[in-house]
Write a structure and sequence with these properties.
With about 425 residues, the chain is an alpha/beta fold. S-adenosylmethionine (SAM) binds next to helix 2 and helix 4. S-adenosylmethionine binds next to helix 2 and helix 4.
Length: about 425
Amino acid sequence: MTLFTRIARQLNWRRRQWSTARDQAFHDAMFAGQTHDPFSPSYPGWLTIQRFADLAGRHVRPDDLVIDLGCGPGEVTCELARRHPAAQFLGIDHSHEALTRARQLAGRLGLTNVRFDSGDLEGYEPPAGTGLVTMFDAFHHLLDPAAFVRRAGRTCARFFLIEPAGNWLGQWQKTVDLDWLAESLFVIRDRLEYQFGLAASVHGPAAPAPPAGEPTEHRYLLDDFARWFDGYRVEVRGTVAGLERYGQSANASSPLRDDIGRSLYHLVVDLEDALVRADLDLAAKHWAIYAERGRAVPPRRVPDLPARAIEPPLPGPYDCEYVGYEGPHDAAAGSTIDASVDVANRSWRTWDSQAEASPVLASYHWLDAAGRTVVEDGWRTPLPRPIAPGERATIALRVQCPPGPGRHTLVVDLVHEGVTWFSGAGVPGLRVPVRLR
Ligand SMILES: C[S@@+](CC[C@H](N)C(=O)[O-])C[C@H]1O[C@@H](n2cnc3c(N)ncnc32)[C@H](O)[C@@H]1O
């Protein structure tokens, strides 16, 4: 890495003003109120937990003391402790919400070889006798990784990290990203549930909305890790596990969902092996990095693959095409306006306002000139009739304008009541500029 690229990366990061306190606040908000079951194959994140535990588990020795730094809610820590009953595990994190949840999960599994403590990684030194330090998506939160490796290396000779693959700008490099594969399988799952009337049971409230703010999110090159772990033998393998979008269903489970979750896992295992055989695995969006004090081996290079954007190949249940809008672009603030939108159902499911449990209705949001949401939950309008896949319909909307004047955007959206906004499922609403007097 040249001096120029290093400076460009530092400037890119400095704009973000990251700090440990902000990272802690972000993660506390993120983990508070989580109620999903991470050990159920129905849970979309199960794949990630299993895969990270597979890759780390190869380096756990029977009597190891394993310190999992930045353990979060301890999902991978507990999975490892369950698989390696003779080893002892200690999870460390600065988020109290994460630790509360981690202790609950360990209790639920009846684990006696894992405990969780609060600590700040910036000054943390693993206890003497530590066999392995693991960090799952946590190393890049450190403000001073070089100092961390020097300090932790005094008492520990082996490290296992899962890290997002970085580019020279310090951004996430997702050349091989197979999230579309998981999303397609989830669409197939939803479609089978719909076709056969197999409702999943939902436990606890829906996942909380993503918190405001930002955690510390450096992205590093393989050369960075080689530099920090100088004097170590460093082995790297790519992994495509680590889904970013879980859909609306983190808390839903059923035998069918379990089966699909397990199928996805086996598919990913086989695909990762195929990538390794073709020497393409380092192009995957995460790296599993194992460093053991000893003689360095020549580093592998990240393959130079073209980054190709891939559209999800299957339509989902909410694929709506907004074909037209008729209505005012100018109105009095606080007034009620009438408008109509033409929609085409490009999905595989019928949208029905008469469905008792969860009707599909038309509605809207309002944004102000700065793009901030000023009305989240607009009035509802029933569809004129059930709209089957492939059909078009015109929906007459009654819309209440927000009270403040100025340039606004009306966002027409459909809602599957109690399940999701169509926009929340990744299908953007129709945006209409409206000037309010
Ligand atoms: C992306 S989460 C990963 C959590 C967990 N390892 C997993 O895979 O689910 C990163 C975790 O690192 C923790 N973390 C970040 N900086 C930290 C610090 N300076 N001290 C302690 N924990 C920290 C955060 O609170 C968060 O739980």
